[in-house]
Inverse folding.
């Protein structure tokens, strides 16, 4: 295998607390040549409904990534045997959701056209609609794997149709998601009415509430996702979206819509690793709001480690090297 063109600085030569903050200390590059994976920020929180601050999520997650090392013992992969860069942040427009969604789709398009796999750091979950527009334009409707406390399939909030509680309904309406190949898990908390989770199911999603997810082993969850991914439309690219509020807020307090009773960090990491071998075209991690985090930044640290697992999944995905 050829030596990857880009990768992190060697921490044995320069201390981890030095240098410009990029994800895992990978170089900031804005050229797709020789790039396998691009980590990029979408600093946007105009779509939030409660606590704001996720616009600062990309910066915090980058800072939380400085301790990441090259070898993933759990997935048994050399994480940076692929060429990984920090693409920087997309240019977005605070206060203007429709325009920002277009900017996200336009910003991802050249990466996807070049065969680069994007990992997007949010930002609130509204950003995923712009991402899905780009993926659908490149690949056709994608299957969605969602780890989240909320289904985010609402119709309107405060008279607004574009919001962090509505992106997956809008995505279904726009034909961006193949719901027959999609699964939402970790869902919990109070709802506006008795039908909220059932409405997501009526759109075609499989929904696993958090209480049921806890009863599954990581391997069982992985098999549920695989069965769903291949059993609906006959397979095709998938997209993995991880909302940090799937974690219990006692352990990841830095998020805008906290729901008690969530996953423990080690549970969530195992569920992510259980997805190894699935053909993910891209990934995102959203809703980190660092001003709500603890002084030791546990939310940002955990978020960075979830993205580290994404990098391992990318090496192990079914289409890698094909």
């Amino acid at each position: 295998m050829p030596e990857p063109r880009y990768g992190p600085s060697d921490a044995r030569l320069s201390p981890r607390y030095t240098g410009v903050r990029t994800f895992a200390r990978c170089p900031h590059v804005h050229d797709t040549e020789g790039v396998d994976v691009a980590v990029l920020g979408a600093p946007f929180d105009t779509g939030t409904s409660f606590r704001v601050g996720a616009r600062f999520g990309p910066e915090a997650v980058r800072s939380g990534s400085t301790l990441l090392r090259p070898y993933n013992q759990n997935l048994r992969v050399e994480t940076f045997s692929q060429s990984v860069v920090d693409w920087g942040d997309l240019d977005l427009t605070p206060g203007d959701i429709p325009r920002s969604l277009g900017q996200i789709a336009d910003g991802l398009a050249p990466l996807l056209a070049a065969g680069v796999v994007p990992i997007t750091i949010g930002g609130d979950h509204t950003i995923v609609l712009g991402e899905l527009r780009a993926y659908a334009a490149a690949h056709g409707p994608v299957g969605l794997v969602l780890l989240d406390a909320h289904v985010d399939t609402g119709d309107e909030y405060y008279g607004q149709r574009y919001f962090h509680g509505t992106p997956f309904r809008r995505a279904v309406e726009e034909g961006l998601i193949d719901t027959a190949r999609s699964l939402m898990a970790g869902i919990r908390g109070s709802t506006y009415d008795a039908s909220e989770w059932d409405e997501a199911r009526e759109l075609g999603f499989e929904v696993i509430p958090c209480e049921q997810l806890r009863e599954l082993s990581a391997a069982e969850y992985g098999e549920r996702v695989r069965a769903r991914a291949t059993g609906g439309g006959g397979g095709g690219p998938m997209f993995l979206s991880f909302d940090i509020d799937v974690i219990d807020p006692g352990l990841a307090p830095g998020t805008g819509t906290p729901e008690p009773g969530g996953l423990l960090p080690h549970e969530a990491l195992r569920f992510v690793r259980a997805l190894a071998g699935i053909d993910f075209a891209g990934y995102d991690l959203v809703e980190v709001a660092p001003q709500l985090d603890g002084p030791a930044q546990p939310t940002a640290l955990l978020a960075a480690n979830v993205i580290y697992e994404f990098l391992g999944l990318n090496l192990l995905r079914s289409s890698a090297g094909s």
Q: What stands out?
A: The CA atoms of residues 25 and 191 lie 40 Å apart.
